[in-house]
Amino acid sequence: MPDWSRRCPAVDPDNHHMFVSLGCATENLMQAAQAFGKQGQVHFDSAMDVVKVSLEPSQTVISPLFDAIPKRQCTRVEYDGRKLSNDDLKSLASAGQGKGVNMLLITEKEKVDQILEYVVQGNTTQMNDRAFVKELESWIRFGYDEVVSKGDGLFSGSTGNPVIPRWLGMELFNLFFAAKSENDKYAKHIRSSAGIAVFVSDRNDKEHWVETGRCYERFALQATALGIKNALLNQPIEVSALRPQFATYLGMGDRRPDLVLRFGYGPETPRSLRRSLDRVIVA
Ligand SMILES: Cc1cc2nc3c(=O)[nH]c(=O)nc-3n(C[C@H](O)[C@H](O)[C@H](O)COP(=O)(O)O)c2cc1C
Hints:
The chain is an alpha+beta fold. Helix content is 45%, strand content 16%. The strands form three sheets. Strands 3-6-8-7 form a four-stranded antiparallel sheet, with helices on both faces. The structure holds flavin mononucleotide (FMN).
C-alpha cells in the first residue's frame, strides 16, 4: 500500500509516481517470490487503492532479474557513450512490455537531442518553482549521518556530489544549484548515453501506473543483469504544462507519457540506502 506520509505534492501532485513506485516494489516481490518457490497473482484494488498479491507454491525459478535486485541503482552520472547491441536493445524492449503499457526506445541522435530540449525546459520550470526546490531539498541526504539515520532519500554521494554535513550541503545547494549548471549537466548526461526510453500506458489511471512501475522495474533489472545503467529524467512529464506537448512530439496522442529515462554504460556509484524491513511492513 502507498505510504501517504511520503507523498511529494510539489513534484507529484496526483500521486502518479507514488503508484508507479508501488509497481516497482510489486515487481521486486514477484521476482523474489519465484526464487523462493512461489508464484504470484497481482491485482490492483481500486476501491482501496492497494495492490493485492496472492502467492501459491510453485517451481523455484532464480532468474537473472532476481539476482539483479540488490545491484540495481539509478546511475546519475556521465556514461561512456557506447551504443547497445541490437540483441541487448531487444532484450530491454521485451522486459519493459506489460499489460496496457508500451515502451519507446529512442537511439537516433536528432530525437535524443530533441528530448534533451524537453528535459531542459522542464528542469528550468522546476528550478524556478520554490515549492519544487524546497521539496527536493528536504529529500537530499548530504552526509553519511543523515543517510544512515533516515535510510532513504536522494544520497548526495550517488549523484556524484560531495558527501558533507547538512549545514554545508545546504549552503552549497543554495549557492550552486542553478538552472544553467543543472541543464548543462543533463546535456552531458544525455549525450553520453546510448539512448532514451519512454514508458506510456493505454489508460491514465492508478492500475496502469502500477503496471508501468512493474514494467520499468523489469527493464531496470534486465539492464542491470546486462551491465547496462539507467537513470530517470522525468522533467518533461512532471511539468504538467509541458507533458501534452511532449506526448504530441512522441506521437502518443492523448496518452500520458509515464516515465522517461536514459540508458547506457557507465560506472557504479555509491548506493542509496534502504530502510529496514520493519519500517516498511505494516502488521
Ligand atoms: C516513479 C519514480 C520516478 C522517479 N523520477 C526520478 C527523476 O525524475 N529523476 C531522478 O533523478 N530520479 C528519479 N527517481 C529515482 C529515485 O530518486 C531513486 O530510485 C531513489 O533515489 C533511490 O535510488 P536507487 O533507485 O538508486 O536505489 C524516480 C523513482 C521513481 C520510483
